[in-house]
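Sanity check. The docking grid for GMT depends on where the pocket ends up, so I'm generating a full predicted complex first rather than guessing from homology. Inputs follow.
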Amino acid sequence: MRIGITCYPTYGGSGVVATELGIELAALGHEVHFISYSAPFRLNGRNEGIFYHEVPVSNYPLFEFPPYDLALASRMAEVAEFYDLDLLHVHYAIPHSVSALLARQMLARSGRRLPFVTTLHGTDITLVGLDRSYLPITRHSIQESDGVTSISKYLKEKTLADFGLERPIEVITNFVNCDVYAPIRDETERARARRHLAAPEDAILMHLSNFRPVKRVIDVIRIFAAVAREIPAQLVMIGDGPDRSAAEWLAHDLGIHTHVHFLGKQERVSELLPLADLLLLPSQLESFGLAALEAMACKVPSIATHVGGLPEVVEHGVTGLLYAPGEVEAMARGALELLGDRQRFSRMRDAARRDAQKRFCASLVVPQYVRYYEQVLKN
Ligand code: GMT
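Predicted complex below; grid placement will be based on this.
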């Protein structure tokens, strides 16, 4: 198949999923064309069978807001025509599914069919999509999509209820490449790699996100502070975003800044995650929680929240511990109890990897997308 993929190319789960999907599809022999305003950040160096088409957005003095969605629709239609695409797959409904709808209409005039699949990821439904400025057009573009997938059961139910929709939505969960995201088997090698971040006796806690308010990075710092009061520990913060500076200030104010390492955006997350003991993901809401899954695949249990789709990913007491958002003290206690009970901790680490392999490996999930594309093309 020749598949066009559109996503936000910046640091964020939906872009990561779209990019990894493109890479996996290309590895299966499909031709993948990314169409976006810049190249997705995880594409680097792995591009056989993958093409990238930039969307140029002109900014005339008359435009207070350059219409990216229109430029995207034009580019989608062009790329579909030049490269004979079979279908478009857009990630994050706003504005990508609206642009895809326009591209489909443009091509229909010349008798060309260009079905599109929309994958719903999270705030495109739970936050931005419900904003009155976007709700009617988001609802329309979801309704008009040739196929709609959702990354969790939670998000599917939420979409149907909040948008008053009745159309079918296929749940295809996020996935992880279990060969790339994997524990370091050799304990000596792992210990050596950890030494770059911490002393041998230190626990390593990690957080990975786009540092938006929904991620509650302030809670991450507070949880860590409570843990570090009891045991030697280091916190590694991966990513960047609006709340980073507040988190840095708090680490200073609490006097723990020498134990908190802000690494910024990292390309090789799969090399850092296996070094952690625990992932902290105390989000206000997660429709899935890709970071928790990537950590699980590396044998790292999560201290997270039982919100949205997270309980579909992390099983409380088995592959991690789940709390209500804001339960900072309880999360710190949970982390300490777990780290202090070597047998339970080791069982949880094994279960995390096993579960990621059993339910979320790319080799299991990506074929579900391929089957879904085939079904959409057939209809
Ligand atoms: O919805 C967002 O906040 C953005 C989006 C992203 O691009 O990071 O995150 C969502 O999609 C991810 C990938 O499918 C999920 O793992 C995240 O849980 C989801 N975020 C939220 O629901 C807050």
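Relevant for the grid: The domain at 187-359 is CATH 3.40.50.2000 (Rossmann fold).
Also worth noting: DSSP finds 15 helices and 13 strands in the chain.
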